[in-house]
Specification:
6-stranded mixed beta sheet, 13 strands, alpha+beta, about 375 residues
């Protein structure tokens, strides 16, 4: 879930007041503020990779356990964006440490080969500017030695009561196998007011490329889409860009996997939503073409089966029980998978539950070795 926009009206008002105080003669300076203090990333950029050449390459045919999880910046049950006026006590460092240990315990129990995380704070006032990627890597590097990360909410200064200061929130992909390269593709912004765009999350795709031991390449995509319940609109452009990318990879016969927090419900799920959630989601799911053209996890037969509640992945307005399915893994039909699962954890660990599958890359279907 991405509720960072719940306080958008207050932030927009604050920013408008700041700009209004600038003399008319300094109008040019006021237009520069979003570029000086906000984030204006390029549409595409190569990213650094932390990985040693001694880490083994991925071998075709071997099972690959994938785990995808929005860890909600190690905040546990604390979620300020739910409450009007940010009226909850701020997180304490010991709260973050406790939540880190619980999340690390789950990850180590599951022992994934590839771990894709969303909402990892590199620096943020709410989490005392602690680098959560460094904290996680210190505790997981013994079996997940390689990683890449992509920032998707970054600003030097945000003039908001509880967010004043610099922020940097990232997606992270960690791996047991050697990572060759990584890149970030910017998705269309959903903000209607252009001056606000650099100060809010710039949703993106983190692509991580693995060289296979027998040649060829496997690509994972990690993403966190905007939240339609914020009412910012233009979600269709993000969905179209994501669909275009995985369609391109499929048409090229590439081996790929996509996972993350989509903030969208699956086809046919609308009637299952609690009444207080229905106004935030569309009756016709934007994910229909994803399920039509690719293999989706959770699968529709499981979502709408007798044990459909086992596949719920998140909660939002109803904090005492899971009520949403918005986290997914997708891959092309020419990749086999099994052991699909959503692990239901105590609700005070994160507002999202981790999603799992095991992939099997056939040695006869090897993607070309390319980073394009």
């Amino acid at each position: 879930m991405d509720r960072t926009g719940q306080h958008s009206k207050g932030f927009a008002t604050t920013l408008a007041l700041v700009l209004a105080l600038i003399p008319a003669g300094a109008a040019t300076f006021s237009t520069l503020i979003p570029f000086l203090l906000g984030d204006n990333p390029p549409t595409y950029q190569q990213l650094p990779v932390q990985c040693s050449d001694t880490v083994p390459k991925l071998s075709p045919g071997q099972p690959i356990k994938v785990m995808s999880w929005n860890i909600q910046f190690l905040a546990g049950a604390y979620y300020p964006y739910w409450t009007p006026g940010f009226d909850q006590p701020l997180l304490k460092p010991e709260d973050i440490d406790r939540n880190l240990e619980r999340i690390v315990e789950v990850i180590r129990e599951e022992n994934p080969d590839i771990l894709q995380l969303q909402e990892v704070h590199r620096t943020h006032p709410l989490t005392h500017h602690r680098d959560q990627l460094a904290m996680l890597y210190e505790k997981l590097s013994d079996f997940l030695p390689c990683y890449s990360s992509a920032s998707y909410w970054k600003a030097r200064f945000i003039p908001s009561k509880y967010l004043t200061g610099n922020v940097d929130m990232a997606m992270v992909t960690m791996s047991r196998f050697h990572i060759k390269s990584a890149s970030k593709q910017l998705l269309p912004a959903t903000r209607r007011t252009r001056i606000l765009v650099p100060f809010y999350p710039r949703h993106s795709l983190l692509e991580t490329n693995f060289t296979l031991s027998q040649g060829g390449q496997f690509t994972t995509i990690n993403t966190h889409l905007d939240c339609p319940s914020i009412g910012r609109g233009r979600m269709d452009e993000q969905i179209h860009a994501l669909l275009k990318r995985i369609t391109q990879l499929t048409e090229e016969g590439r081996l790929w996997m996509l996972s993350g927090d989509f903030n969208l419900t699956p086809p046919g799920f609308y009637p299952k939503l609690p009444d207080n959630q229905k106004s935030f989601y569309s009756e016709k799911s934007p994910l229909t073409p994803f399920y039509k053209n690719f293999h989706g996890i959770p699968q529709l037969k499981d979502i709408h089966g007798a044990e459909g509640k086992r596949w719920l992945t998140a909660y939002d307005l109803n904090r005492d029980y899971l009520d949403l399915l918005i986290d997914y893994i997708f891959h092309p039909h020419y990749i086999n998978s099994g052991d699909d699962r959503v692990r239901h954890l105590p609700l005070d660990i994160s507002d999202h539950m981790p999603v799992f599958t095991t992939l099997y890359l056939s040695p006869t279907e090897i993607s070309p070795d390319t980073d394009n």
